[in-house]
Amino acid sequence: MKVLQMLFLLFISLALLQPSSAITPDTPLSITVTPEHPEPGEKITVYAEGGRNISDIIIQICYGDICLPLKSMKKVEEGKYKYSFYVNKTTEASLHLKIMEGESFTWDNSTSFKVEKKGNGTPGFMAVATICAVAAVLFIRRRS
Questions:
Q1: How many structural domains are present in the chain?
Q2: Backbone phi, then psi, for 105, in 5-degree steps?
Q3: Dist. CA 48–CA 38, nearest whole Å
Q4: Cβ(129)–Cβ(123) under 8 Å?
Q5: DSSP string, 27-83
Q6: Does residue 144 sit within a domain?
Q7: What is the residue-level pLDDT of the chain in tens, covering all 144 positions?
Q8: Domain extent for 45
Q9: Residue 93: CATH number of its domain
Q10: At 2, which helix (H) or strand (E)?
């Protein structure tokens, strides 16, 4: 029994000594999406910025359950990356970023946003109200 306990402790200690593939950031990655509330057909630009030794950022855009192929973000300057795309319909979009630092990487799945049309009330409400008002006036004049 003691041999099993010793082997178990040895296994655990060796597992804890293994290098981690996850990046431990000095400064967290800052992700910005512009415009903040995009509409269908608008150009959407994603900016990723971090104070780490990032060699590349790969982005995957998902619309609900449908995910597009991975694409490399364009390096704008040291530690700053940019990627632009279009969404032509109303949907919920989520961004998955694979942050590369040398041979190791980590995923950031924290960014999502809605693409939807901005409305200013009920479409055509004023037209319907005007038609009803004109019909009421004509109806009252006809009775008189």
A1: 1
A2: -150, 165
A3: 18
A4: no
A5: SPPEEEEESSS--TT-EEEEEEE-SS---EEEEEEEETTEEPPPEEPEEEETTEEEE
A6: no
A7: 666 565 555 555 555 444 433 444 445 689 999 999 999 999 999 999 986 688 899 999 999 889 999 999 999 988 899 999 999 999 999 999 999 888 888 899 889 999 999 866 555 666 677 777 777 777 788 876
A8: 20-119
A9: 2.60.40.10
A10: helix 2-17
* 87/99 Cα distance (integer angstroms): 23
The pairing of beta strand 30-34 with beta strand 43-49? antiparallel
Supply the pTM of this predicted model.
0.62
Q: Establish if 31 belongs to a structural domain.
A: yes
**The pairing of beta strand 66-67 with beta strand 74-77:** unpaired
**Position 60 in a domain:** yes
Residues 6+ apart with CB under 8 A from 110: 31
Q: How far is CA 75 from the centre of its chain?
A: 19
As a whole number of angstroms, the distance between CA 130 and CA 144 comes to 21
**Is 137 a domain residue?**
no
Collapse the DSSP code of 111 into the 3-class scheme (helix H, G, I; strand E, B; otherwise coil) and give the result.
strand
The CA-atom distances, in angstroms, between 15 and each of 11, 19, 103 are 6, 9, 20
